[in-house]
Amino acid sequence: MEDLKKYSLTCFLDENIKMIKEIFKNDESINMRIFQNQYSGLRGCLFFISDMVDTKVINEHILKPILESKVLLDDVDLISYLSNEIITSSTLKCSTSIDELVNAIVSGDTVLILEGYQEVIINSTKGWKVRAIEEPNSEKVLRGPKEGFIESMSTNLSMIRRKVCSKDLKFISMTLGERTRTKVCICYIDGLVHEDILNNIIKKIENISIDGITDVKYIGEFIDENPFSLFETSFTSEKPDTISGKILEGRVAVLVDGSPSVMTLPSLFIESFMAGDDYYINYYYASLGRLLRILGFIASISIPALYLSLVSFHQGTLQTPLLITIYAARVGVPFPSIVELLILLTVFEILREAGSRAPSTMGQAISIVGVLVLGTAAVDARLVSAPMIIIVGVSSITGLMIPNMTVTLSFIRAGLLLLSSVLGIYGYIFGMLALIIHLFSLRSCGIPFMGHLTSFHMQSIKDTIIRGPAWYMRYRPKFMSKDSKRGTIGGKGDE
Amino acid sequence: MNRYILLIIILISSIVLTGCWSYKEINALYIVAGIAIDKAENSDKYNIATEFINIKDNKREQSFESILLETEGDSISDAVTKMTRISAKRAYWGHATTIIISEEVAREGIVQFLDLIVRRGEARLSTNIYISKEKSAKEVLQRESFSTDVRSFELAIMVNESKNIVKVPALKTYEVINALAIPKVHTVLPTVKSFYNDGTPTNLLSGGAVFSMGKLVGFLEEKDILPYLFIKDQVEAGFLNVEAEKRNPNDTITLEILGSNTKIKPIYDSQTLGFDISIKTDVTIGELTTTTDYVSKRGRERLKKLAQKSLEKKIKSHIEDVQKEFGFDIFGFGNIIRQRNPRLWDNMEKDWDSIFKDLDLNINCDIQIKNTGHYLKPLKVVE
């Protein structure tokens, strides 16, 4: 944007038009409309980008009133006269800055330049097609709200605003990306959020220096305190109800224009195990779901490693009939167990990747090929043993229960497997210890990532491995929100 | 940077230099189910027969069978080592359940085999030990198994899982080892003998072999086992045959044991030593072939007295037999004295065998008939 410095607006319409045309040279989408009032002969020009503006607003609220107004005096300040009395569009702004003018045009506003005036009027005429609000594919729920965020940030903000009708709901806007100039909005509830955390996040986001940003994940990676960790210490969701719930717990939400996912900070490990509809179904059932997901997490990373160490190191710990069954299945298999496991896990990762990239109509074909050709045929051909298919299948499917962490799980699974291929169960324990130590060392915006998971206090674990009943959740997570009491006496800002 | 290199070196060496590095592929092992130990004919060598589990591989389906390998050696480990020159797969002893020892070898002593099991480490201390009453121990493994595919597993399941067999006092290796370390305690191991089932020979658990200081000294017959178990408080379930009354000699009464508890109390003063054996047994009527009323309240009282008398008699005659035949304490009465009154035991230990022969025993049975089974009355038979 350096090159804009050499331009400046003048009082002559023709020169201004020439200058703007030069700034936007080779840009076919820019539209120019020169007009002249029939009564006073006032000349002017409108600049806007077609397809980004609502032409109805330009026609009816800008052009029509100006062209039809009879009294146009040369001696009064025409700019304020027009903006106060003639133009009927709701939002407008006067400016002499060439910077602002260019930004307005590229973001879908209409710029009105008048003959004899250096000042221009910027009319808000943004209007483009946006996707309809629908249920996000990645977070399907059985019960509860079905709406999901879309790519338009203003719509997203309105969705949050509709859920939290409080004057304490605050939005801080900023622009990120030197070229894309993407709008970023930080959303929180005044009185609940910790100022330290909020200021910390704002400072970090302001410090981001990047060319362009298209999704909220960019910000997540920039402000992550543990950039090399397998675990992401930020939470993203596409559901307004989930995000509102997080904000109500004193978290800070970050929205990026053009991205349907919204990030909340600080984030806890346990948040990955919470499903969107946990809060809309019976709490026993929801708690069972949570426990299953946590068990699934442990099973998913442990099963291949444990199987390998039992079969290849500690045969004595297997029950005799089970040992004989596994023994029988392995007869004639050419590869060692560890190679077999690595091959099958890689095949599964390939299938998963192919399944998620391929068009949905081909997904069926992939699963049939995966199950029939690669599974059954491989066992029949004695390339792999049958129990191995079960082991890999179970560990992969349990991993899919936690969609936020599927890739993380694959890495941990492979790591533990390699460790136990060298040391047996000792290697597995070794790896698990390292994993636990790592998890407990993580911080998200200064908050321990493992949160309350080591607590035995009922109020602390009410919404972690179980989901307590709604009436029991009297307090917000203490370390995150300033005012921890929920309910009528609640937030300081509330009347 | 240097710190990271140091960290990596520490991590790698902690993986590579520690642990047992014992990755062994499961199908490179040959699972041993059991072993039979014999003396080779006309020599001092040992002849061992090892039962392996062999997978029959028929492309589509796998099944397993047992396969025997016989080797000879100067010692057991010599014979075991010989296997590695015969089989490509390493013998894996972790799942072995059964050790069968021939009478001849057992008479020489079994301590060396126990030592081998403890020292080698791979075989489990819960392995069961049996004594073969046939000519050789390997015969037991050679016979076809009646109910399972593997002979050794059949024996192990019978001995460990079938509660209804009161016939066999089952002992695991570690129990035998522990008993060896206690003075004047004698162990009784189960014996296996052949049985002809419709012409084909199979095996039968029957009776026990009495060991003194790790050497076989005699056998308990099948009829001795029940009283022996009652004294040792090892009865969990089983059947108790009641001697019929003299009035009705054709009656058959069998009681099913639901549970039993034996308490042995020593009684001693300056002159005499005796034991109070009180047995409390819960039973239900298992079989009743009689017209006599044993079912009504008074009848049950009569049956109870009858059964108590019959059991007391059995136990008494068994103890007398042991006192006469063996002349030493296979029941562990001495151990009770040793635990209760060590000072008294110190005086007695030397002469315990002779003291045992003249022990005063007071046997008290209390049999509770809990119910009459699934039918209330005796079956009615009309002439």
UniProtKB/TrEMBL annotation, chain A:
Q: Which UniProt keywords apply?
A: Membrane, Transmembrane, Transmembrane helix
Q: Would you tell me the Gene Ontology cellular component terms?
A: membrane
Family statement drawn from the similarity comment of this UniProt entry: Belongs to the GerABKA family.
Q: Which residues cross the membrane?
A: 291-310, 322-348, 360-378, 384-402, 414-440
State the name under which the record lists this protein.
Spore germination protein B1
Among the GO biological process terms of this entry, one is: spore germination
Record the organism: Tissierella creatinophila DSM 6911
One Pfam family named in its UniProt record: GerA
From TrEMBL, chain B:
> Which keywords accompany this UniProt record?
Germination, Lipoprotein, Membrane, Palmitate, Signal
**Ranges annotated as spanning the membrane:** none
| Highest taxon listed in the record's lineage | Bacteria
Spore germination protein N-terminal domain mapped to chain residues: 23-193
What membrane topology does this protein have? Answer: Lipid-anchor
Output one GO BP term: spore germination
| Compartments reported by the entry | Membrane
Q: Which gene encodes it?
A: gerBC_4
Record-given protein name? Spore germination protein B3
Q: Which GO CC terms are listed, alphabetically?
A: membrane
Q: Which InterPro entries does UniProt cross-reference here?
A: GerAC_N, Spore_GerAC-like, Spore_GerAC-like_C, Spore_GerAC_C_sf
**Family of this protein:** Belongs to the GerABKC lipoprotein family.
PROSITE patterns documented for this protein = PROKAR_LIPOPROTEIN
Kindly indicate where the leader peptide sits in this chain: none
Limits of the Spore germination GerAC-like C-terminal domain: 206-373
Organism in which the protein naturally occurs: Tissierella creatinophila DSM 6911
